[in-house]
Amino acid sequence: MVSTVYAVLFYIATLVLVVGVVMRVINYARTPVPLKIVVSPAPRTRKGVWFRMFREVTLFESLFKSNKWIWLFGYLFHFGMLLVLLRHFRYFQRDVWGWVEIIQPFGIYAGFAMVAGLAGLLFRRIFQQRIRYISDPSDYLMLLLFLGIAGSGLMMKFVNHVDIIAVKAFMLGLMRFQIGEMPRDPILMIHLGSVVSLMLIFPISKLMHAPGVFFSPSRTQVDNAREKRHISKWAAELPDLPEGIPEKKEG
Amino acid sequence: MASLDMDAKGGPKFVGDPLKIPQIECGAMADSKTFAAYPVHNEDLGFPGELLDNWKEVAIAKIGELADKNRAFKVYLDACVKCGACTDKCHYFLGTGDPKNMPVARQDLLRSVYRRYYTFAGKYFPWLVGARDMTREVLDEWYTYYHQCSQCRRCSVACPYGIDTAEISMAARDILDSVGVGQKYCNEIIAKLKKTGNNLGLNPKALRATLEDLEEDLEEETGIAVKLPLDVQGADILLITPSADFFAEPHIEGLLGYAKVFHASGVSWTISSYASEAANFGMFIGSYENMREVSWRIRQAAKDLGVKRIVFGECGHAWRVGYSFLNTLAGPFDFLDQNYPIPQHIMEFTSDAIDDGLLKIDKSRNDEFVMTYHDSCNVARGSSMGRKQGGQFDLPRKVIKAVCNHFYEMERDTIRENTFCCGGGGGLLTDDLMDLRIKGAKPRMTALQQVTEDHGVTHMAAICAICKTQFSKVMPKYGYEMDNVMSVHQLVANAVILDGQETEADVATAEDTP
Ligand code: SF4
Ligand code: SF4
User: Fold this and answer.
1) Do B118 and B206 belong to one domain?
2) pTM of the prediction?
């Protein structure tokens, strides 16, 4: 019963995540950009923009320049999470890839980095006057959700071992549309339950900043307005304005 | 407010910190209200004259329309993670402490309504995501706080996703206008421009008289007939400059500088009475249509006069519109000479003239000034100059250093892409917002005070009509004189010696010779 519920939840969540994000991204891509609104100084070439964006998503360059604390905690959280996610590949592969094997030990430390980053962000959100002012309940809940996922994951590793072989078998089964037995471990159930919730809310929440950053005109446009005319479809279809100068007399 | 600077030259000194973050003071600026537009001016711009009966539906629909027409609006409203990196970046927050002047909080005034009507979470769980209904209070709050944003984009530089509060402010003003709640200053000016071709309402006759007066002044000063041509058919260059250059100080001095540079370069040029304004307030109110109409005049003037090139004078947001939008709004400019950027900034022109050795310069003529340079926000973050990235910072400095001996930079985090707005940009340069303007100028003024303490800086140069007007108004509040702000081309005008011009030095040598 529990296995079936989790299996169904996983299928629904995956569907919501993929379809939701893809739909939103298509919607972003289709929404016109009427003007060149690069925030300068900005690259003059497409290649330069790729480089700018690469630095933004790998180094969080702007954030580094604007706030070192938020950068530190945000970076620990995001790149910790990235490693942890990559480490999790082994639960979805019958024969685990070599590099996934290699990162396993780092992935564990990354788990701690992720928790440290999240704790720092939460601390600031609660105690930094300005950030508290701009926070809504969902902003706290989101951090708590991530903390729940990371914390329960670490607990299964260090405090309360689960039958990881059985978990892997269950996951591999899901990928082949066979619902096997999921271990009845409360911490595992919390862990997977919060992951499912996260997947469900992703497309309707601020987590959309992840794909959104690639659609931010101020960062992704090329600074070449004078060389290349930029015009959006709806603007091109506006009625023509009258040619010529109406009346030319002094007075 | 002040801190002790132990490393200052000549022993420790009390100086302020331009980046000092104030304590939050809720509602500090809640009473700031800029005058509402007269119905007739709203109508001139194509908006309803007064608040519509069904304003709520119209406003909500307009939010949806903007989200469909402008990717930036939609993505920015979705993507903010409330990280807080922008919260201490706005000069109006630093100057007032009102938390609603923190960029993200300013966005949230609109985001909360967008979420309520256009997102799943906001429709079903409004309390969770801070969504709120559109009400009269919300509308009034928008009017109050979206007229406390100068659309300077300093916050956008700080944001990890480049979220630009200026875009949100423009959208909000567009929504306000479309339900009949316009701002007097902006809408009156746009209406005036549509009638007369400039923000001042100067008619061609008055403009011609002004230019003739200035020609006389120039001849008196230099002994040479330097022209300020108006409506000259077939001139090479059409100069588009803010109308403040025709009557306000220190703007006029800049105009005289352009005239000298053009004269020394031997090009033919003209001003147009039909497009006698570089400023485009259509941007401030976020109205594509109005911005396009204003820009269209420049195209028509260029065509009518048969010029080959367009050059913009010193004006910040005008240059943003010129550099980034003009080609979109009024292009393509296939009838102009394609060997030059279209349009070009006067700074690019002067910089080239210096490189080509066309200007005879005596730097010592500016020796009485110890200069610093204020990067105008729209030039710094909304445009560029020259062939290289960052030219909008380097060219003005190059020109200043070419004509002045004494130049010092202000603190790093207050210049170039991190420059502070003067406090009067974005359609806020009106007396009914004087309190806000004085407070908003504080970070810039503090940075200036620092270099005055450390290096004895006496004057600050700028290349924006709004900056110049704003500073000459607010500088006296910070211990400076009105004329401590200068046009960059004023410095150029001082230092350039025209061919055949008699200088004091000549006179002196003549007297020495027996
Ligand atoms: S654009 Fe400038 S004035 Fe507006 S919120 Fe951002 S920093 Fe403040
Ligand atoms: S920096 Fe950007 S993401 Fe962070 S709170 Fe400000 S607008 Fe939102």
Assistant:
1) no
2) 0.93
